[in-house]
Amino acid sequence: MRKERYPKSKSDPFGLISDIDLSRDDSWQGKVFVTLDVDWAPDFVIREVDEIIETLGIPATWFITHKSDAVLQLFGRDQYEIGVHPNFAPLLQDSYKRFTINEIVENARKLAPSATAFRCHALVQSSHLLEQMQAAGFSVDCNVFLPYTPIPALSPWRHSEGLVRVPYCWEDDTWIAGRCRTPHEVTETVGMRVIDLHPIHLWLNSETLDRYQRVKENMDDERFLRLNQNKDSMNGVLVAFLKMIEDLSRK
Q1: Which domain holds residue 239?
Q2: Helix 101-111 and helix 127-135: axis angle, to 10°?
């Protein structure tokens, strides 16, 4: 039996994706799972978002895309679980010949040898890709995004490939684009709530996708990124996230 890494009481609403057990409804029903798709964010962004999550004292599942000093500091922390965020999207381009499916899967496994959970970049998936990830030892798939399905109807299930599929109900960039339920619905509706964040949107406090597009090609320019942070204390991804955690912690 897996030892609980994040010490919590029965009333604690927060959990890690690997806590989900299909044989125990109480492992996911009414729980909140914070996940982050790293998406090659620069180290200074990862470190500062890490500080935010750590200060909040909540568990989080990080889906990593690469190894760096800041990413390596996320490993081995009781508060965190490391999953992977493989990028199969280039395979959709006819001219792409850099990596095969097997090589992308192998690289994902090398990133985090003990990881059990994954979410694919851009949610690229197919029965074959899921089969390959399962064969590489991954057991939990977080690729299913249901932005409008009523939260009480959400639950994990077992896929035909043997994977446990865990749907998520809220995503930061989709929300600021106006194509997702509101943060208020996440906090006020009882059920399994898996939310998806991106370190860059949290750090920028993005309130529009235009803010991200302005910095996208200059991710290594820390000064430029800091000049483009949203300092509005009333609006943005970081503001919404902190309010969600505050409200959920009171439940």
Answers
A1: 14-249
A2: 40
| 2 domain-assigned | no
Q: How far apart are CA 216 and CA 195, in angstroms?
A: 23
Does the residue 5 lie in any domain?
no
The Cα 110–Cα 137 span in angstroms is: 12
Residue 148 lies in a domain: yes
Residue 103 token pair:
């090589």
Burial state string for 67-104 with b = 16 or more CB within 10 A and e = fewer than 16:
eeebbeebeebebbbbbbbbbbeebeeeeeeeeeeeeb
pLDDT digits (tens, 9 = 90+) for 109-120: 999 999 999 999
Which ranges of the chain does DSSP label H, i.e. alpha helix? 43-56, 69-72, 101-111, 127-135, 172-176, 183-188, 199-204, 209-215, 222-227, 237-249
Give DSSP secondary structure letters for 173-214: HHHHTT-S--HHHHHHS-S-EEEEE-HHHHHHT-SSHHHHHH
pLDDT band at residue 250 using 50, 70 and 90 as cut-offs: confident
- Model pTM? 0.95
Q: What is the pLDDT of residues 169-179, one digit of tens each?
A: 999 999 999 99
Domain CATH for 90: 3.20.20.370
Three-class SS of residue 138?
coil
Going by pLDDT thresholds of 50, 70 and 90, the confidence category of residue 10 is: low
Amino acid at 9: S
Q: How far apart are alpha carbons 175 and 184 in whole angstroms? A: 12
pLDDT digits (tens, 9 = 90+) for 57-109: 999 999 999 999 999 999 999 999 999 999 999 999 887 778 899 999 999 99
Q: How many domains does the structure of the chain reveal?
A: 1
